[in-house]
Structure formats: structure tokens, C-alpha cells
Amino acid sequence: MSVLSPYRVVGSHDFAQNSSSISQQGTETGSLPFNSILDFVSEVYLKEPELLLGNDALWTFVNFAGEDHTNFQTLVAFLNMLSTLASSHEGASKVHELLQGKAFRSIGWSTLFECLTIYDEKFKQSLQTAGAMLPEIQEGDAKALVAYLNVLKKVVENGNPIERKNWFPDIEPLFKLLSYENVPPYLKGALRNAIATFIHVSPVLKDSIWTFLEQYDLPVVVGPEAQGSPSMGTQ
Predict the structure, then answer these.
(1) Contacting residues for 116 by C-beta, under 8 A, at least 6 apart
(2) Residue environment code for 9-47, b if the CB has 16+ CB neighbours within 10 A, otherwise e
(3) Bridge partners of 231?
(4) How high is the pLDDT of residue 224?
């Protein structure tokens, strides 16, 4: 997986097949202090969200912390921090802007949507090859995608109701992996949760969700409390 390859599990065949166990252990251990800092920042702003207001120093740190991740553990910790920071109108707008622009070389909304599309294309190619088995999604990729999707969900949930209507005009990539049996259930769950968040953003996006559910032949459950809103059942 070329898009998220720097963030795969240390020790996987294609990411570190030539690395010794000592160097692998060192890489994992080296990421722990940085992850702890990111977790600490998340805890602080989860308990004191009002500290986000006008906090330029925080966003300077976020810009610094988002650069040059060499494994998926630090990437996931960084994205988890962004999820926490996106728990308010101001935070959601800031996080959306960061991931929409070019603040980071390898982290952004485009990375999320491109990765989903590339895996879909990869699976389609396998299905067209007689006797070929569907390739597995690398654990690092799957966990990074879940972390991205959690950020997406928070940003859409807490974004300004007027501004967020135009933030994600094309959400089709979120549907592309839901029909494949080899996609981990926890990743499918994160995809469904992210999709469900868009239902109340605008009538246009709600209609798009129905269209894509039909297009990809995905099961839908509509309960009496849903008031016409689609809910994707498990597969």
C-alpha cells in the first residue's frame, strides 16, 4: 500500500523484512515518549476544551507534531489528538483546515480518500484474476484509516453547520470498501460511523448517501427512531 506504507506495522513483511528484531524494537520503543506527549495533550483539552479558544501556541505545536511520522503508532496518536481537538466549532474548523491544506507533507484528507480508493482498485484487480485471493489490508493501514475516520467524524459532527456543507463534496470513497469480506470489521464500523455523520449535514449529502448505498448494494436498516435516515447493517 503505497499511500500509507510509512505507517505499517513495524516488522511486517513488506515494510521491514530486512530489519533486525533489535532495530524493530528500538523503533517501537522510540515512539513511546512522543506518543505519551500527544496523549497528554489530548487528555488536557478533553477535560478543558475552553483552552482551545485563541490558543495559537497549541496549533503551533500541532503543526510541529504532524511532521515526519515514521510509523503508524505515532500517526495514530497524532490523529487521536486531532479528534480530541475537533470537539468544538473552532477546533473542528482548525483541524479541517489543517488536513485540507498543505500543512503536512503526508497527512491530509486526500491521503484518507486516496488510500480507500487505491485499496478498492487493488481488490477489484484481484477479483478479476482467476484463482487470486483478496489481499489483506495491512494492520498499520487499517488502524491509521480508523484514526483518520474518527477525525473525519468529529470534524463533521462539530463543524459550523453552514461551513461544513462544503467541506467534503465527494464522500463516495467511504463506501468503496464496505462490500469486501477481507476488510476488518473494526474498519467497516469506522466507515459506517463516518458516513452516518453526513446524514444531517445537508439534504444533498443525505441523498448522496442513499444513492451510494444502492450503488454498492449495501444493507440498510431503518428504525422508527431514524425518521428516514439510513443506517447500515452489519455484514
Answers:
(1) 145, 173, 174, 176, 177
(2) bbebeebbeeeeeeebeebeeebeeebeebeebbeebee
(3) 221
(4) 52
Counting Cα atoms < 13 Å in the Cβ hemisphere of 164 gives 28
**In degrees rounded to 5, what are phi and psi of residue 88?**
-140, 170
Q: In the chain, helix, strand, coil percent, each to 5?
A: 65, 0, 35
Q: Which of 183, 207, 113 is nearest to 151 (CA)?
A: 113
DSSP symbols for 147-196 = HHHHHHHHHHHHS-TTGGGGT-S--GGGGTTTT-TTS-HHHHHHHHHHHH
For 98-122, how does the pLDDT look when each residue is reduced to its tens digit (9 = 90+)? 999 888 888 999 999 999 999 999 9
Distances from the Cα of 194 to the Cαs of 60, 145, 149, 178, in angstroms? 28, 11, 6, 12
Residue 59's alpha-carbon distances to 26, 40, 53, 81, 82, in angstroms, are 29, 15, 11, 12, 10
Tell me the CA end-to-end span of the chain in Å, nearest whole number. Answer: 25
Is it the case that residue 223 has pLDDT exceeding 80? no
At residue 231, the 3 state secondary structure works out as strand
Geometric angle at alpha carbon 133, from 127 and 138, rounded to 5°: 105
Residue 171's identity, in one-letter code, is I
Report yes or no: 52 and 90 within 8 Å, Cβ to Cβ.
yes
Q: Which three cell numbers stand for residue 153?
A: 467524524
Per the structure block, which three cell numbers stand in for 209? 448517501
